[in-house]
Amino acid sequence: MVNGYGLDESLQTIMGWGKYEASAYRVLVRYGPLEASDVVVRAEIPNGRVYDVLNQLYSQDAVIKQGVQPTKWDAQNPRKLIEPNQRKFEDMAVEAIEALEPAYDLNLESQSHPAWITTGIGDTSTKARELFERTESRLWILERTFWLSPQDREIIQSKAENGADVRILGWSGRPEVQELAEQMPAAKIREAEEVDTSFYLSDDGAVLINLNQGDTAMIFHDSSTAKIFTEHFKSLYNSASEVHPDA
């Protein structure tokens, strides 16, 4: 999966946009309806340019306006926007759609449920640790990057030792999977060849989705949302391979 800046470059090539248009669209897909002032901060666009950028996207039907005073801007569906250019830029278009569409769908789902966003690795790690510490009966972790700190691992191991159902599913391309099995023998650890995101499920209704290798997180406290992620985790976990500590 491409990162934010790589995705911006793909959008510039596919859509013929400048860097500010690409950045603004990516941010609106990820965070949903935003005021222009929020786009300035999240997309790193000069304050004096933001309305020109948003109006340019609006003229191309890439974004829509919602309300007045304040006006909010929202992204159009990335698949419908990008697919007409797919033949010309097949590989980049597919990659961009796959990177953007899950965030877009997740944003639609989250608009009807309580949700919070944290930015910065420090805030994300703090919220994740709070989630781990509050766990009583279940902690399921789907992890691609394994940025978990030693303190996080100690907490998770303690929860498993005290009877919580701790399951960790990692990407087999990361050597840290074996390390976790050795550091947390009480947890049930498996690995899969395809892990394209990271999220954590704690008890009933609590979900933290880790984006951008810990730089951004979305936090939900909603049983219906948690059920969606629970079923996704189960489908991956049941077909994954068990990882045991080295003897």
UniProtKB/TrEMBL annotation:
Residues 11-78 form the Transcription regulator TrmB N-terminal domain. It comes from the Archaea. InterPro entries: TrmB-like (IPR051797), Tscrpt_reg_TrmB_N (IPR002831), WH-like_DNA-bd_sf (IPR036388). This is Transcription regulator TrmB N-terminal domain-containing protein.
